[in-house]
Structures are given as structure tokens and as C-alpha cells.
Design goal:
Blueprint (H helix, E strand, L loop, with lengths): L1 H9 L6 H44 L2 H18 L3 H19 L5 H9 L23 E3 L6 E3 L19 H7 L2 H16 L3 E8 L22 H12 L7 E3 L7 H4 L5 H9 L5 E5 L2 E4 L2 H21 L2 E6 L21 H11 L5 E5 L6 H6 L6 E8 L24 E6 L6 H19 L3 E6 L16 H11 L7 E5 L5 H15 L15 H14 L7 H24 L13 H8 L1 H19 L1
Parallel strand pairs: 3-4, 3-7, 7-12, 8-9, 8-11, 9-10, 11-12
Antiparallel strand pairs: 1-2, 5-6
Length: 615
């Protein structure tokens, strides 16, 4: 301000320099006086505002803060010997700092400060974590039939064709068919039935509503395919067909005993499953969940399978169907995996042997290999394990079950794996494998009881299996196995995640157990080329263990050679240039290879041959 005034004064004429200089000094002093007055006025207003804010703030302090402030004021009085007014100032300052520390982050200013200035490494030019303000939100819905996700504008599921708003065997129908009154009457009937004489003409059913309590509690981005609706769908389908409750006899449910489980699983595995009952939600593997009811559901499922095997072996029932969950064929000796906690088929097989069975056949047609069941009986020649599953050179879950996995030690040859090398395998391939591998080996083995690990995830429309087996195909396979072991057949539910496919397939199987003959035409049974190749591969490996397979292997090898020659002939026939060669620059080449030139050469060869024969 002073420099500006001096410069203005120097620009005057020489005669007025001193006069103007004095005037400038007077104005300079006046400006400073005015500025001092303004500054004092502003400072006064600021102090007044601070005092008023401090008074307002002190009124808002809680009683406990006042107590702390009073103690701090006392300490200040003792140390500094300040006046009462000074003590009030110290008290107010301490109150303000304490209140501000407690309320930090509750204002927009604090939030703004924390967001932009708390980070020491913050750089406003760094846009590496930049995101658009409006995120792209893709709305989707999950199919109630197969749980697959679909875009919101689609009205039918891309995987199974189910309508967006449909309910597959809704809960109302299930409640009507399995109300408390009906359940009480069923329980009374089943106790009377099994307390009386044997019933060799009936089919037993293992089911209990407590297994529906096993479900995934934690909400994930995708519904879990192994859900309670699987049992509800099958039970509703059986009720709609008038089969259950009705034609089937429901056995009493019980929890399996620890000593029965320890025949398959060690105590530490049993304790690990039991510990899940103390947690609301837990996971043994990323896809194998448990809640507080899962251990109970697993014990009931295993107990039902054990009792069904014992009832069949003792003659109380002809055959049985275990409508149970969680499934079991992936559960190994010491590990829970693949949605499975206890191995239901394994405990049933050992229970059947305890009830008098010398040899047990387990046929696993689940689309996934039963790695747990194979591990348990890998060296046991009293249990024959046969599995038909997708393998694709180990790329399909769980990756085990190659054709050369035949067992170990005394159990060599008693693990028979039929690994499909692609998806989309249908009825013809499965039944063809039954005719040439499963039934010949099983007949030679002569089991006392047959157990089916009946996973229906190879069914048409299943989101995980992606195969093409129909309910008629499952019924035919069940009928073929019922000819073994004098009809002693136990079917245990494993996988299957399309509710319509699993319900219709299970109903078709139960109808066969009740004595209904399947309607499947075997006259035009032709396997696919990939299926024939797999069957030949398995036959070649197991010839040294089961010589009865020799005739089938020889016949199928000739059939394979015939197909190979036809394939080469077709390949040679289709080595024809495009039709437009006839009119383009390659017209001469086309005529020479496939046109008049070829016919002329063939006629010359025939003429020379006829002339040679005449001579």
C-alpha cells in the first residue's frame, strides 16, 4: 500500500513534490488507521462468534464430560493459579477438544476430510481407480427348475426352457400331500407294517422331513443346486402318481449309530461333521455346505439306507428306494466333498453284509464318478463297484474314474469304470454299456444284493450333467438290474438338479420297483461312435479279469472295423472339389477327377480287363 502511494507521488511535477508527498503520507497514515480499525472490528466479531459458539457447545456437553472437565479445571487451577475466568476458558477448551474427538466423523466435513485427506498417498491426478458414476447393472433371474441364471428380458430359461414365473411342484401341493395329519397316519401304518410279518411283495420307501432342514444358509450369488426342493419335487411327483404315500411302505426313520458309521468313516471325520451342528453356516469345501441341521440330516439319511438294506436282506421287503439327502457317493473315508457328508451307499453295503450278504454290487449311474465309493472299496473283492460317468480325460468333476482304474491288491478287477469322453450321452449308449459290460460282469459276480447310486444328473435338461438320458432309459436300466440277486434291489438317491427331470426319472424307477414293465424299444439300439469306442476300451482292459467279456469284445471289434471302413469310404467319397469348379478356372481339374475324364479312364480299365480275360 505504501509503495503504491509513493509511486503515485513521484509522478507529479517537481514543484508539487513536497506538497504531494506530505499529502500522501497523511493518506498513508489514515489508511493504516482505518485498516487497524477494521482489523480490530473483525477480530472483535470473530472473538464474539467464538465465544457464542463455545457457549452453545458447552450447553451440549453431557454430564460425564462435565465431570471430566471439572477435574481437568481443578488440575489447571492447582498448576497455573489462574483466575476464575481463565479456568472457565481452560474448561471450555478441554470440553471442546473432548467433544470434537468423540464426534469425529459424524459430520459431512469430517467425512469429506476422511475421504480425501486422511490418505497420505492420495494423489488427485491418479485416476487408476476411476469408475464411472453410473454402473452397468444387469438384471437377471434364476430358474426355479434348474437354478440357472437368465437375463431379465428372457421369459424362458435358456438351460431347461422353464417359464420365468412357473413354480415346479410348489410348496402348496407338497403341503397338501404331506400334511401333519397324513404324516401321523403314515407313521402309525408303517410301525404296524414292520412290527408284523414280512412283506416280500411291497416296495419300501425311506424318507423323513428332517432332511429338508439341510440347506445353504449363507446367501451366495447363485442358488445352490443341491437344495431341499429336490426331495419335495420327487415326493410331489410320487404323490401325483398315487405311488407315495400309497403303494410304497414308508419305513421308520432313525439316526445311524456311531459304530455303524465307523465301519466306513473314522472317528475324526464323524466328529468333524458333528461339529458343524454348532455353527449356523459352515463349508467343508467351497461347494459342500453345512448348517446346524446338516449333521442330523446326514445321520438320518445314512440310517435310512442301512435299515433298507437290512430289511431287504431279511426279507421284510422286496426292494426299496431311499429318498434321502445330502447325497453320499463323493464322500471318501476321511473327506466330505461334492455336496456329500457320509457315504450312504457304502454304509448300506456293509450293513447288507452284516445282515448276511456275501457279495454286494454297487452300480453308480450318476453323471459324476463316485470317487468316495471307489476309494472305500478299492481293495475289497466282496464289493463290485461299476460306474458310468462323464470323464473327458479327467477334465470333468471330480477327475477320477478312468478306465484303467481297476482296483488295488485283492480288489483288482472289482472297480469297473465306464468313462464317457463327451457330453450329451443318451439312452442308447448307457443301455449298450449295460448289455455288454455291466450285466455280463454282474452275472459272473453273482451278487446277493444290488445297490444303485441313482444320481439323475445325467438326465436330459440337467444343468450340471448336460447328458440326454430319459426317464424311459432309467426305467430300462433299473429293470435290467432287477434280474440280478433275485430282485433284491436298493436304489439310493444321489445327484440330479433339474427338478422336472429328477422327479419324472425317480418316478419311472419306482414304478419299475413296483413291478411295472418299462416301455423301451431295444430292437433299434445303436450306440454312438464315441460310446462304442468307450465300451471297447473298457472291455479290452477288463478281459484279463473277466474272461466272459471275450465274445462281446470280438463282436464289437468287428463292428468297430466295419464302421472305420465305412468312415474311410465316406471320407474318400467326399473328397470332391466344390461344384463351382465346373465353371471356374479349375474346370479342367474337376472334369479330370470327377467328370468325363474319370468315366473315360474307368471305361478303358474295364475294357482292358475284359480283353485280358478273353485272351
Amino acid at each position: 500500500m505504501a509503495m503504491v502511494s509513493d509511486s503515485l507521488c513521484m509522478n507529479r511535477k517537481d514543484g508539487n513534490i513536497s506538497k504531494n508527498h506530505n499529502a500522501c503520507q497523511q493518506r498513508h497514515q489514515t489508511d493504516f488507521q482505518n485498516n487497524d480499525k477494521d482489523l480490530n472490528f473483525s477480530l472483535g466479531r470473530m472473538s464474539t462468534n467464538l465465544c457464542s459458539e463455545q457457549n452453545c457447545l458447552e450447553e451440549k456437553i453431557s454430564d460425564d464430560v462435565d465431570l471430566t472437565c471439572n477435574s481437568l479445571t481443578t488440575e489447571a487451577d492447582a498448576k497455573n493459579n489462574c483466575s476464575a475466568d481463565d479456568c472457565l476458558c481452560v474448561s471450555g477448551t478441554v470440553q471442546f477438544e473432548l467433544y470434537h474427538s468423540k464426534q469425529k466423523g459424524n459430520t459431512l466435513r469430517d467425512l469429506h476430510h476422511q475421504e480425501f485427506f486422511d490418505d497420505v498417498d492420495y494423489d488427485e491426478d491418479d485416476d487408476s481407480d476411476w469408475e464411472p458414476v453410473h454402473h452397468l447393472v444387469i438384471k437377471k433371474w434364476f430358474c426355479s427348475n434348474c437354478t440357472m441364471p437368465n437375463f431379465d428380458d428372457a421369459y424362458h430359461c435358456d438351460a431347461c426352457g422353464e417359464h420365468k414365473e412357473s413354480e415346479v411342484f410348489g410348496h402348496e401341493f407338497y403341503k397338501c400331500s404331506f400334511s401333519d395329519r397324513i404324516w401321523n397316519s403314515i407313521k402309525t401304518e408303517r410301525l404296524q407294517r414292520f412290527q408284523g410279518l414280512s412283506c416280500m411283495s411291497c416296495t419300501a420307501m425311506g424318507f423323513d422331513e428332517r432332511m429338508l432342514l439341510h440347506c445353504e444358509v449363507a446367501m451366495q450369488s447363485h442358488p445352490h443346486p443341491e437344495r431341499p426342493d429336490r426331495l419335495r419335487a420327487i415326493a410331489s411327483s410320487l404323490a401325483a402318481a398315487g405311488i407315495f404315500p400309497g403303494k410304497c411302505t414308508l419305513i421308520p426313520a432313525r439316526e445311524i449309530l456311531p459304530e455303524e458309521l465307523q465301519k466306513v468313516h473314522p472317528l475324526d471325520h464323524i466328529d468333524a461333521i458333528q461339529q458343524s451342528s454348532c455353527l449356523q453356516s459352515s463349508y467343508f469345501t467351497p461347494d459342500t455346505y453345512a448348517n446346524e441341521h446338516s449333521a442330523l440330516a446326514a445321520r438320518i439319511a445314512a440310517g435310512l439306507c442301512v435299515d433298507l438294506a437290512i430289511f431287504i436282506m431279511s426279507g421284510k421287503t422286496r426292494n426299496g428306494f431311499a429318498l434321502v439327502r445330502p447325497p453320499g457317493h463323493h464322500a471318501g473315508i476321511r473327506q466330505a466333498m461334492g455336496f456329500c457328508l457320509y457315504n450312504n451307499a457304502a454304509v448300506a453295503a456293509l450293513a447288507a453284509q452284516s445282515a448276511g450278504a456275501n457279495k454286494v454290487l454297487i452300480v453308480d449311474w450318476d453323471v459324476h464318478h463316485g470317487n468316495g465309493t471307489q476309494e472305500i472299496f478299492d481293495g475289497n473283492k466282496s464289493v463290485l463297484y461299476v460306474s458310468l460317468h462323464r470323464h473327458e480325460n479327467g477334465r470333468f468333476y471330480p477327475g477320477t474314474g478312468a478306465a484303467n482304474e481297476v482296483g488295488v491288491m485283492d480288489g483288482k478287477g472289482y472297480s469297473v469304470n465306464i468313462p464317457w469322453n463327451r457330453g450329451g450321452v443318451g439312452d442308447n449308449d448307457y443301455i449298450f454299456a449295460f448289455q455288454h459290460i455291466v450285466l455280463p460282469i454282474a452275472s459272473e459276480f453273482a451278487p446277493d444284493i444290488t445297490i444303485i447310486s441313482a444320481g439323475f444328473d445325467a438326465a436330459r435338461g440337467d444343468p450340471l450333467g448336460c447328458c440326454d438320458v430319459t426317464p424311459d432309459g432309467y426305467a430300462q436300466m433299473t429293470h435290467m438290474l432287477s434280474s440280478l440277486s433275485e430282485g433284491k434291489l436298493l436304489v439310493i438317491l444321489e445327484g440330479g438338479y433339474n427338478l422336472r427331470s429328477i422327479s419324472t426319472s425317480a418316478t419311472a424307477v419306482v414304478k419299475v420297483l413296483l413291478g411295472e414293465y418299462p416301455e423301451y424299444d431295444l430292437s433299434n439300439l445303436k450306440p454312438s461312435e464315441a460310446g462304442l469306442e468307450t465300451v471297447l476300451q473298457v472291455l479290452k482292459i477288463h478281459l484279463k479279469f473277466w474272461p466272459i467279456l471275450q465274445n462281446s469284445f470280438d463282436a464289437l471289434r468287428e463292428q468297430w472295423k466295419l464302421r472305420a471302413s465305412n468312415r474311410r469310404r465316406k471320407r474318400r467319397r467326399f473328397l470332391v472339389g466344390p461344384i463351382w469348379w465346373r465353371w471356374g478356372s479349375k474346370k479342367f481339374v474337376y472334369e479330370l477327377l470327377f467328370g468325363q475324364g474319370k468315366r473315360w479312364r474307368c471305361s478303358r480299365i474295364r475294357l482292358s480287363n475284359s480283353t485280358r480275360h478273353t485272351i
